[in-house]
Amino acid sequence: MVNKREAERKxxxxxxxxxxxxxxxxxxxxxxxxDTKAELEKKIQDVGTMQKSELLQHATITGHRTSQxxxxxxxxxxxxxxxxxxxxxxxxxxxxxxxxxYGMIGLNGSGKSTILQALAARMVDIPDYVDIWLLHEEYPPxxxxxxxx
Length: 149
What we know:
A hairpin with a 2-residue loop joins strand 3 (74-83) and strand 4. The model is unreliable at 45-50 (pLDDT under 50). The protein has four helices and five strands; from the N terminus they run αααββββαβ. Helices cover 28% and strands 23% of the residues. The chain has two domains: 2-32; 51-129, no CATH class. The strands form two sheets. A three-stranded antiparallel sheet has the order 2-3-4, with no helix packed on it. By secondary structure, the protein is an alpha+beta fold. The chain has helices at 2-22, 30-33, 37-43, 112-120, and strands spanning 44-46, 59-65, 74-83, 86-96, 133-135.
């Protein structure tokens, strides 16, 4: 128990030093910023059991899978997403390849998170054998690389 607390203190000290070097401060309190692996896993949800968000209740998402059902790579053609009359994506081909991790970059409010939530909620035809994980919160800064996490 003492070793765990000492490790948490060292981790927090490293984080504060890194924040000072980078010129920003974490918005979380000291106790909240120290996440254990178990706490992080609680934040990450297996999207197969994820419920639709309030926004996705008003979404119209279309597209059809053109890849074989047991294929390792998934291809969805004519993928479109309209929410409350606003068209986010129109007739796009979406390809998801085995072994890859995906994220999205774009302007605020452009629908990045909503698209990922729709895929995670399996609102398009994505086979059950495909694992989808969605992180809802920002992960606190650390010395650990993304591949080590």
